[in-house]
Design brief:
Layout (H helix, E strand, L loop, with lengths): L1 H33 L8 H8 L4 E2 L4 E2 L4 E6 L5 E8 L14 E7 L2 E5 L1 H7 L9
Antiparallel strand pairs: 1-2, 3-4, 4-5, 5-6
Length: about 130
């Protein structure tokens, strides 16, 4: 029985490292691809430069972009935000907002990226306490 438990532990540890390797690769690629962006690029080019292929880990599939939103700005204009997985704060199999980089589009064109830029354009989301 002990041999089976040890064998299963080794198999699961190996699978976990496969997941971590694919997510590490995706983060590194996304950080490098951000360097290719320029204000004014059309959305199709931005998505081509950033990549559209998800990271296919053993236990988790990470979409690229990870999430998209349409937000109303402080100026009343509509912004499309593509969030890309670029940072790792904790190896906990959860992707949090502080591990993402927003790429901001308006009228189908890139206008900026990063949270400092997004914060200038869009009011912060309300937080609720219980």
């Amino acid at each position: 029985m002990k041999k089976i438990i040890v064998l299963l532990s080794l198999i699961l540890a190996g699978c976990s490292s496969l997941y971590l390797d694919t997510s590490d690769l995706l983060r590194d690629q996304n950080k490098e691809n951000l360097k290719k962006l320029s204000v004014g690029q059309p959305k199709d080019l931005v998505m081509e430069l950033m990549g559209r292929d998800p990271s296919k880990g053993v236990f988790m599939w990470i979409d690229n972009p990870y999430r998209t939103e349409v937000l109303t700005g402080k100026d009343g204009k509509t912004y499309e935000v593509l969030y890309y997985y670029t940072d790792l704060k904790a190896r906990d199999d959860k992707i949090t907002d502080d591990e993402l980089t927003p790429v901001v589009l308006q009228n189908g064109k890139l206008i900026g990226w990063g949270y400092p830029f997004l914060d200038q354009k869009v009011p912060p989301k309300p937080t609720y306490s219980r």
